[in-house]
């Protein structure tokens, strides 16, 4: 069992800040994955995420879907932080609006979203709840895209 002192994310953020300043990463370079940072620092994923969120708030790193977290380039605007459930809901909504998920199609389950995005079940549940206007829940069957 690993024990982590309160505020461990601050130490990790500071270590990553030093690495970013040391030219280890050039502008646009990918940072190590969350899993790699978890292994490197011996902490929980949420601790690493909190450290990375801090760096993003400072504008030092940016997140690009499909590419991960990258070193921010000069003059590149910091992106506003968006709760994970909103990001997941936005991606699912985009799939519905593009026709990738059509009326009557089954949405991914909470379990699938937990696995796909590496989030807690409550976060997946919030994402699905945010789509109530375009989906319908069938008890024991799942959530489906509404027919128009």
Give a short synopsis of this structure.
45% of the residues lie in helices and 11% in strands. The protein contains six helices and four strands.
Describe it.
The protein has 148 residues and is mostly helical. The longest helix is centred in the middle third of the chain and has 15 residues. Strand 3 and strand 4 form a beta hairpin. It is built from 6 helices and 4 strands. It starts with 7 loop residues before the first helix and ends with a strand. Helix 4 packs across helix 6.
List keywords for this structure.
two-stranded antiparallel sheet; mainly alpha; elongated; 148 residues; single chain; 4 strands; 6 helices
N-to-C span: 51 Å
Q: What string, H for helix and E for strand, traces the elements in order? A: HHHEEHHHEE
How confident overall, as mean pLDDT? Answer: 85
Largest β sheet strand count, sense and barrel closure: 2 strands, antiparallel
Helix content: 40-55%
Strand elements, count: 4
Shape: elongated
List the helices and strands and how they pair.
Blueprint (H helix, E strand, L loop, with lengths): L7 H14 L12 H8 L3 H13 L3 E4 L3 E4 L12 H15 L11 H8 L3 H9 L5 E4 L3 E4 L3
Helix pairs in contact: 1-3, 2-3, 4-6, 5-6
